[in-house]
Amino acid sequence: MSRKRYSSRQVFDEHAPYVFRVLRYMGVREADVPDVCQEVFVTVHRKIDGFEGRSSIRTWLYKICQRAASDHRRRAYVRREVVTDFAEERPRAVESAGPRVEARSTLLFALGALDEDKRDVFVLYEIEGMTMREVAEVLGCPLQTAYSRLHAARELVEQALEREGGGKK
Amino acid sequence: MIDPEDPPRLIDPTSSASPRLRELLSESRADVATEAQLQALSAALAPTLGTGAVGGATAAKASLPGLVKVAIAVGVTTAAGGAYLATREAPPSPPQTRIAAPVEREAPKPPVAPAAPPALPAESASPEPAPAVNTPVVSAPKHAAAAPSEAELLGAAQAALGSDPAKALSLAEQHARAYPGGTLGQEREVIAVEALAKLGRTAASRERGERFLAAHPKSAYRAKIQSILGER
């Protein structure tokens, strides 16, 4: 079976919305998402010829996003900037910014309760819809470890929402 | 993507998720980029990726952030020959990151960690050498007091290659110290190899170029490096 060959432009056209979302839920600040997204696609352009199709294109892209978000985080530290949207307290302003933005803000707040390993599993499985096998592959951990992280992440997210929301529905 | 062995996802009504979390996840799945965001991004990337289905027509209007400019200038889109040696002009648009004209001639001083604000976790400064923020190389419009970004450093290095390869090399080394695992590491090495060659430091250029080729055998810059080393 021949594998699909991609051009970097095709990858962009088909997956840019996905990359945007992934970066957001990796905690890249909203204002910085377009810049980091560009870094991702410059990297895609540079490496697309080496993409051998052993993993899905989304898995491959996710790894590039991970690297770009991590670099961004480090640069933000160097620049003495605020690093992430994971806030200790939710900004009140988002409540008037529309339900989707508010939902994102709330979820980012809850994800802030997780360490990176658990957050990645949660985002990949619950938001990106990958299978657990794919999740384990992306994260380079045993399947059983991914399951454990997912279980723990779910509990922590629910607890964070309970704490944050109180009686809010 | 469904695997029968996977647990029900929280978005699934049969899962154990609270209604609120389920609602949030449902919203988050629809939380993709807006059309306007995609068009702006597509336009900004057009010089690198070519125009495509999204927003190609708006390419000329978009700003071109520095990182993309560096990738273009170093030759990521035309790595097969020597034509990339000329720094290509950015599209007619106001770039977000503008390289300031005067750059200090002296070699950058050893990195000096700026005084960390009290709120910064101590470990955040330790793993990386701090950039030489006392050697302001470029302006940074977004963050007036910020250290130069990767793109700014390498944009200045690329711009200096033709007229002042020593400065280009110095800026490349500054980038290496500030961003040892940076996104533009390959671009930096291409600039450094070329700068060394232009300075007549042939052995150093060759050694660095060969190290690059060994580390990145499939790099889009392979042909460029080979060309500088006189192998093509």
Sequence-ordered SSE layout with sheet pairings:
The complex is a heterodimer of chains A (169) and B (232).
Chain A: H1 8-25, H2 33-47, H3 57-78, H4 99-111, H5 116-127, H6 132-139, H7 143-165
Chain B: H1 19-29, H2 35-49, H3 66-74, H4 122-125, H5 150-160, H6 165-178, H7 185-198, H8 202-215, H9 222-228
Helix pairs in contact in B: 3-5, 5-6, 6-7, 7-8, 8-9
Describe this structure in words.
The complex is a heterodimer of chains A (169) and B (232). With 169 residues, chain A is an all-alpha fold. Chain A contains 7 helices and no strands. In chain A, helix 3 packs across helix 6, helix 5 (116-127) packs antiparallel against helix 6 (132-139) and helix 6 crosses helix 7. Chain A starts with 7 loop residues before the first helix and ends with a helix. The model of chain A is unreliable at 80-97 (pLDDT under 50). The N and C termini of chain B lie far apart (46 Å). Chain B is mainly α and 232 residues long. Helix content of chain B is 43%, strand content 0%. Mean pLDDT of chain B is 66; it is low at 55-65 and 76-145. The radius of gyration of chain B is 22 Å and the shape is elongated. Classes of the chains: A mainly alpha (169), B mainly alpha (232). Chains A and B meet through helix 1, helix 2, helix 3, helix 4 and helix 5 of A and helix 1, helix 2 and helix 3 of B.
